[in-house]
Every structure is written in structure tokens, then in C-alpha cells.
């Protein structure tokens, strides 16, 4: 977890590789569906372009189908999901069904000034259609309203790990590996 620009996508790929599990990024799956012009992409696009969350029923079904794939059987890392309290409950139900359990929830913390710099930089290099000023602002707002409260929920569950997301990509990765290794060993 982490606000837009915290480095979730970047770190998710490295962490999943390190632990030999697939990284399941809802944002990436939506973007791939938009590029391929699928029905799911058609449903998601207008929400994504406005910085809004895609409706829960669309997102939930997509994640449910993805974690049922054979490569997710030994475990998986979710990037960008859950983002709402309803998704937290839905995820609990899904993993009860697949026989998995949530080992840890990693939150990346980054200064707000640094977040803005990173998003502006990404707007120049990646050209994502949701990296414009107004849309970034809306995504930040939604994160604070709907997603940040999940941090307390997972803290209460005792599985929250807060990691300093400032600094070089590799430094942050090392912090995450270390924190997750400690969870594995305990
Ligand atoms: P970022 O990490 O920069 O916030 P993502 O690439 O994870 O962005 O997601 C991009 C967009 O995809 C979101 O703004 C939202 O519209 C949609 N999306 C991704 N994950 C979810 C989710 N769990 N629930 C609803 N919408 C989502």
C-alpha cells in the first residue's frame, strides 16, 4: 500500500521476483485491458482517466479470477488491491476459498513533496493518461479518504509493516526484503 507515487508498482515487481511469486497489479491489469480494447478495459477506462476507483464489483471479480490461476497457488503479491474497506472484506472471503492467508501488508511512506516530484517525473517519462495535475489530485484525495483507513485495519490485525519509501529504489527494496524475511521467520 501507499499513496500514488509511493513506488508500489516498482517495488512490487522486485519483491515478487525475490520471493518467487507473481505480482498481481490491478492497475497494470486494467491498463492492459484498456490497451487490448476488452470489455473490462471499456468498463474501467472512464474511471481511471478521471482518477476515480473502478467500481468494487468489477475490480473484485477481476482479482478473484486472477488469484484462481495456477501460478498464484504457491502465493502472490497484490499491488493496488485492496483499496477500499469493501475490498478488504471481499479479499478475506476470496483467500478463505483458495486456502491462502495474508502474511503481511507493506505500506510505503514517502514525503508529500517527494510524491509530487515523482508523479511529475512519471508524467514526462511514461505518459500515463491519469498522470495529469487534476487527476493526480483526485487520486491523492481518494487515497486519503478511502484507502488510508485500511492501514489501521491491518495494524489491528497485526500484519502491518511500515517501510520508509524514501531513497533509491534498491535501498527501499532491501528494507522490504528484510522486513518480510523477519515475518517469514517469526
Ligand atoms: P497508482 O499506484 O499510481 O495509484 P495504479 O496503477 O495502481 O495507480 O491504478 C491506476 C488506476 O486503476 C486507479 O486510479 C483506479 O482507477 C484503478 N484501480 C487500480 N486498483 C484499483 C482498486 N483496487 N479498486 C478500484 N480501482 C482500482
| Portion in strands | 5-15%
Which ions, cofactors or small ligands are bound in this entry? Answer: adenosine-5'-diphosphate
What is the N-to-C succession of helices and strands?
HEHHHEHEHHHEH
Mean pLDDT: 95
What's the structural domain tally? 1
Alpha-beta classification: mainly alpha
Helical proportion, percent range: 55-70%
Question: Helical element count?
Answer: 9
Principal-axis shape: globular
Terminal CA distance reads 22 Å
Q: Just name the CATH architecture.
A: 3-Layer(aba) Sandwich
Question: Regarding CATH, which class?
Answer: Alpha Beta
Look at the structure and name the CATH superfamily. P-loop containing nucleotide triphosphate hydrolases
Biggest sheet record:
2 strands, parallel
* Low-confidence runs: none
**What's the total count of β strands?**
4
Q: State the CATH topology.
A: Rossmann fold
